[in-house]
Amino acid sequence: MQLQNTIQQQAQSAKRAAQKLAILSTEMKNKALLEMASALEHRSDMILSENQIDLNNARAKNLSAPLLDRLMLNEDRLHAIAEGMRQIALLDDPIGSGLCEIRRPNGLDIRAVRVPLGVVGIIYEARPNVTADAIALCLKSGNSVVLRGGSEAINSNKIICSILASAAYKAGIPEGAIAFIDDVQRSTVATMLKLRHELDVIIPRGGKGLINYVVENSTVPVIETGAGVCHAFVDKTADFQMAADIVVNAKTSRPAVCNTIETLLIHEDIAADFLPLITKKLQSLHVTIKGDEKSRTLCPSLEEASEEDWSTEYHDLIISVKIVFDIFEAVEHINAYNTGHSETIITNDLKNARYFQGNVDAAAVYVNASTRFTDGFEFGFGAEIGISTQKLHARGPMGLKALTTIKYLIDGNGQIR
Amino acid sequence: MQLQNTIQQQAQSAKRAAQKLAILSTEMKNKALLEMASALEHRSDMILSENQIDLNNARAKNLSAPLLDRLMLNEDRLHAIAEGMRQIALLDDPIGSGLCEIRRPNGLDIRAVRVPLGVVGIIYEARPNVTADAIALCLKSGNSVVLRGGSEAINSNKIICSILASAAYKAGIPEGAIAFIDDVQRSTVATMLKLRHELDVIIPRGGKGLINYVVENSTVPVIETGAGVCHAFVDKTADFQMAADIVVNAKTSRPAVCNTIETLLIHEDIAADFLPLITKKLQSLHVTIKGDEKSRTLCPSLEEASEEDWSTEYHDLIISVKIVFDIFEAVEHINAYNTGHSETIITNDLKNARYFQGNVDAAAVYVNASTRFTDGFEFGFGAEIGISTQKLHARGPMGLKALTTIKYLIDGNGQIR
């Protein structure tokens, strides 16, 4: 109860601060971001020593090497985080720009302007860099932020947040705009999810378990991010070299991230030639391949894919393979099993390329390119708060505009209806 | 369980139909809408006789006169509904238009295009006209729709839906695109709220109870609509005649709707003059006035306003009045008690007008005009699926574009990352 009240009070302060933050000048916000970036670099000793505590705790708990790597900060990484904040300062301010003007026959002037969402809640897991990123993106777009990070990075998150908040407030950001929930009990997440009057949106960043828990329990609107069961479909007219390069890149360049492919679909007319070729390449890169019946007939060395595989995000060097009769079966399979993230076709048939883009239901639908490009920076947005896999509000990579809404300003001279 | 399965199957059929509907030509959709409108008029006898059953049941349950009026259909009203559908056929198709094109340095061409949301769930109460409106708006924007109407109008809704669906399917709309949940048990709402994999959004249309229930229990993304605790602030420089006209219009022209004002705030410097004037006018129109202490000192005939009044949507000829020290107190009161719908200031002070528009947190913020204009038709959108009082996805009156999302189409020639 005590804890619930504290969290609610932090959120209420964030809401009050948001009203002031919404009308702060771009200049003030940018100045604050630059000073916050410098503070992060000046206090790197403090941050690294707190990070060391998290790393020691993680090692004591036998966390895996990739998890330890996510958690680990050093001078270079801190410098990169500070540089990221400076980049955000350079981006156009999304706030205040007019979106449309309507003059009605009765003389009413209606303008739609872009305004901040208000208070953004971020619930995230083990990466301490998310703390700085989220604070910078929320501030730049005029939003207060309430952060709730994972237990593994609690000491790192806390010190980063405290350094950034005090630099921000010194630079004129309203007090309370940056709130950190300094408690890792699971119940703090549950409390946040019920703060419908204080928070305007919650963005969960992390694994499937966290995201499902948030979606299923939140009364605050949620933007679902991250889950990616992505596919590549190699059509019968595909250039084999291009197809192999794209499949290898999309599976192996960073297997733990969401825009990696999990399933390879191959047109049956070319399967006998392409499957052995891609199997050899993937196996030489230590990728485990799980095939359907047809592909195991062609390549008996493949493991057997189960029904569950088609909807599994492996986060690992594992891929499932299915041979399909034609593009229609490929699109049908994708729409049945994908998570609405990123899909690609490798083809030289323009009609099939357009059919694929028109009919596949996903945020990003590629022709002849790797799904790994689904990313705010690669799309040229200059920043990314996450990748939305839902259709409401934002879809695909979310830049600063995803943290805004509109407001109608209507000027009259006594109009009544 | 049986019932749950039926609803889920309807939603799955709607999802399959949505994939075909998404790529249907504007011409086909418009032709279907016109034939649906004609079918509604040709079968008016059938509809009116089913409506009579609902009216008889409602009378037997002693429903109030306004509720009976909402429920009642006649030839004129059916003609108006059909005309509304013809108007929707005339609107621009929101689907397929390119929103932006980005050519990246690596040669990737990224286009964002507007696409349907997919399957829209509508949960509504006693108005049978919502059935036809919602079907027409969803079809025009390429969406399937799953409707769940209130028990009072069940027979009217069922026949309208069945006539429209068969006309639509005959005109080439994919079967299953229009689903009606033919059961009024409360549990059908609960079932819909969990269909996260079938429904892309749920829009509740009705009273506070329904909307809160949906927001608190849905795992499907929700667009919150409708609740309106709206305010008028009469500043010290206001033109009294204009202020009185606006307040009277905003309170009395249609007290049951959401863009009606519930609270009048008056600057204390003019309260002694303006309050008796507006009190007289409102009382002559049978409006009950509940005042704070200061206003009751000036006008002892007012009833006493309690803390609860400041957050009450009366849906009736009742208004609460509060005298405020200045514009800052007015804005603070509004931001503390409003529902994010519509607010107006009556003033001749430009600085105060801009302060009010900049600092009041609501979908529509007026200067010198009645809040009653917050409406899709009055804003020139040509249609309205509801008025969003949340900030995510859509805010204020929602036209066809609110029923769409985007999709990124990316063309490459072998790019890998």
Summarize the structure.
The structure is a homodimer of 417-residue chains. Chain A is 43% helix and 21% strand.
Produce the secondary structure layout.
Two copies of one chain form a homodimer.
Chain A: H1 2-21, H2 26-42, H3 44-60, H4 65-71, H5 75-90, E1 98-103, E2 109-116, E3 119-124, H6 129-140, E4 144-148, H7 154-170, E5 178-180, H8 186-193, E6 201-205, H9 208-217, E7 230-234, H10 240-252, E8 261-267, H11 268-284, E9 288-291, H12 293-298, E10 303-304, E11 318-324, H13 327-337, E12 342-346, H14 350-359, E13 364-369, E14 386-388, E15 396-398, E16 404-415
Parallel strand pairs in A: 3-4, 3-6, 4-5, 7-8, 7-12, 8-11, 9-10, 9-11, 12-13
Antiparallel strand pairs in A: 1-2, 2-16, 14-15
Helix pairs in contact in A: 2-5, 2-7, 3-7, 5-6, 6-7, 10-11
Strand content of chain A: 15-25%
**Strand tally of chain A, please?**
16
Q: How helix-rich are the residues of chain A, as a percent range?
A: 40-55%
Q: Give the structural class of chain A.
A: alpha/beta
Determine the number of helices of chain A (DSSP H or I, runs of at least 4 residues): 14
Molecular structure report:
Two copies of one chain form a homodimer. With 417 residues, the first copy, chain A, is α/β, with parallel strands linked by helices. The termini of chain A are far apart. In chain A, 52% of the residues are buried. The longest helix of chain A is centred in the first third of the chain and has 20 residues, at 2-21. Chain A has helices at residues 2-21, 26-42, 44-60, 65-71, 75-90, 129-140, 154-170, 186-193, 208-217, 240-252, 268-284, 293-298, 327-337, 350-359; strands at 98-103, 109-116, 119-124, 144-148, 178-180, 201-205, 230-234, 261-267, 288-291, 303-304, 318-324, 342-346, 364-369, 386-388, 396-398, 404-415. In chain A, a hairpin with a 7-residue loop joins β14 (386-388) and β15.
